[in-house]
Amino acid sequence: MKKELEELNGKGFLIHHWDTDGICSAKLIIERLDEKITTNITPTLGNYFLTDEEFNKCQGFDFIIIVDMSLPEENILTLAKNAKVLIFDHHLGKEIKSVFHYNPIIKGENPDEYPSASWIVNDYLQNPVNLHSILGIIGDHEQKIKNNKAFYQIIEQFCKEQDLTFEKLLQMAYLIDSNYKLGEKENVEKAPYYLLDNQTSADILEHEQWNKNIEHLNSEIEDILSESIDLTQDIIMKTMNSKSNIISTITRKIAWKHDKNTIVINNGYFTDENQLYVRTINADMKPMIQKGKQYGFKCGGKKEVLGAILPKEKTKVFVDEIIDYLNNQQ
Ligand SMILES: [Mn+2]
User: Fold this and answer.
1) Closest Cα partner for 64 from 77, 46, 53, 74?
2) 168 and 242 together in one domain
C-alpha cells in the first residue's frame, strides 16, 4: 500500500457518492483500512456539498477520506482544519493542493484510462482487478463503456474468468443504485458494508430488498409513462410528482419512444426546488446548460441532455426559454 494510507492513525470518517461507483469505492477503502474507518456517510442525496449538520458529523476524527465526489473547495478546506483529508476521485475540477488529492483526471490524464473512482482506488491500493473495481465502471458508464476498447476488453476478460455476463454486471449496478433512486440514504450508507461482508456477485443479484426496490421503481416508471404527455410545437412536456430519482429514466424513455425533444419537470423530489431534465433528439443543449449556470442553478449535462435543480418559482421562465431555444433550432 502507498504510504499516504499506511501513515493514517486514529479514527477515520468516510464520505462517498451515493451511486454504485461511490459505494464500491467506499467498500474498497473500508476493506483496506478495516476498523480505522468508524463512520461513513453519503451527502444528502442530490447535494454535491456538505450541510451544517453533516459538518458536525465530521467532527472528532483524525482523518477524513472522500471518494467519488467533488465537494466544493471551501468544504474541503473547512474539513482540513481539524483532520487530515484524502480525496480519491475522477470528476473534473480543480486540484486542491493543501490536501492529498488523488485524481489523475485533474492532473491531465486521459479520462478513458480512469473510467471510475472504484478503478482509481483499486489501482492505488494495488489490488488485482475485482468485481467492485469493475462495478463502479459499469455503474458510471453502463452500455457506453463498450466504446472504450481497452476497458471493454478488461471487462469481457473478467466476465469470462468469473462466468458472468455484461448484462449481469449491469443488473448488479441497477440493484446497488436502487437505494439512492428510492431516496434511501441510510441504505446507501449500509451498502459498502453489505458488499464487504457478502463478496460474491450472487450476493448482489439475490439481495432481496434491492430486488424489491427495482420492482417498485419499475412499476412507478411504468405508471408515469402510462400517463398523458403534452405535445406542443413538436416538443413533449411532462410534469411528474415523484419522490424517486427517476427523472432521467422517464425523460429518456419518452424522448426515444416518440423521437421528439422532451422536457420533464419533477416537483416531488425536493421541497423548494424542482428537478428539470431535457433530452433532445439532435439539438445541442450546451448553450442552455451555460445559461442555467449563469442563472445560478445547479445545472449540467452534455450535448443532448440538460439536467438542472432550480427554485420552483424560477422553473417556468427557464422552461419557456428552453422551449424558445428548441423552436429556433428546428
Ligand atoms: Mn464515479
Assistant:
1) 77
2) no
